[in-house]
Amino acid sequence: MSRRSVERTLGLVLVLAAGLPAQEEWSREFTPEQLPRVTPIVRVAREVGPAVVNIYQEVIEQVALPWPYRYFEPGGTRRTSLGSGVVIDPDGYILTNSHVIARPDRDIQVRLPDGKAFVAKLINTDPANDVALLKVAAERPLPYARLGTSSDVMVGETIVAIGNPLGNENTVTSGIVSSLFRDVNVPGQPGGAQRFRDFIQLDAAINPGNSGGPLLNIRGEVVGINWAIATEAEGIGFAIPIDRVRDSLVDRLLNPLVVSDVVTGLEVESDAWGREVALGHVADDSPAARAGLLPGDRLVSVDGRPVEWVFDYNKALFGSRPGDRLDLVVKRGESVIPVELELAADETPMRFIESLTGLRVVDHPRYYGVVVESVDPRGPAARLPIQRGDLIDGLAGRHVNDSQALYRILKALPDGVQVDIQLFRRGQPLRGRLSLR
User: Could you give all domains of the chain from N- to C-terminal order, each with its CATH number?
Assistant: First the structure.
């Protein structure tokens, strides 16, 4: 067999093993000498590397300087917070860890592997799962990584981590999945150690700065978000399973009910692989019902853009306003039906509470008070800071027995005032001053 035949055979075997494009598409990327050495890891690094970004913030920390320097030098030091992220959508949406964002109220810088830099907008954070969603305004579609599923990740399978350890951009490491369903205790949290559950354990080298970067299988699909290392050991790292991140994306980070002031009356759902998005429920006397939509309709596109999973639908609603109209295409049976959906204002008490405080709350099932379900990182409550799980039982000198009581108190207050707030955090009473929007 000739050398060229061997190269073609080896190249084809590697392509089939990785589930990647046919060899003809590789000819412009690799030389004949390189082709026999191209492994699935090489291919993953080549395909996904452009979608991995460096995230950093400059944070000034106030320190007490000794005499006489305090009279001549500014009372602060500057440090840079470094982490990684991965672009998951060509419109510039980026996943990372929430702990990478040291100060939500400061500029968040994002640098692409090609050197282009942006100031990112923080869309939302989910501290309970330690994930955050950013967005950059790029002039053209960005390279992005495909989300896979963590439901079928196998112990012992090859994985690839890409990130910016210690500021070394686009570093690629590989290893195997060491274990699944690991629980990790993080010491030094308010009220004691915090327990995070069901992590993927890996032995690929990750270091400070890898946080927020993608964990990939050899098909180049994101199966986790790199999270932390065990500092007392070597070769023990952890990643957040992508299925949990996907749920957070849909339910919290880019849920229209969380990040927008509109309602549609629709509940949409899709499978983990994003093959299809269907309408699970249509509320009576809602914009969706008035548009003629029915449960079971399959959502094909919004404003001419295809919908492959719920994130695409949520993305179309981000930044929309009451009265905006969306052009939807749905499939009902074998019929393709165009629909115009007019968005309505969200005037529920819960939305009013969130609009003034930046808090989403639920009634406590056993005690008086409301429990903080999520905190808008850009809102007034985040500046105290109020945290998820806090129990609020007093505002402006009045008792907060439930969410309706909180709504009535807020309705009676002038806009933009400061009020006293009382809460409990892990049994400890706390007080503060909350500035309303």
Answer: 3-38 (no CATH), 52-135 (2.40.10.10), 156-242 (2.40.10.10), 254-345 (2.30.42.10), 349-435 (2.30.42.10)
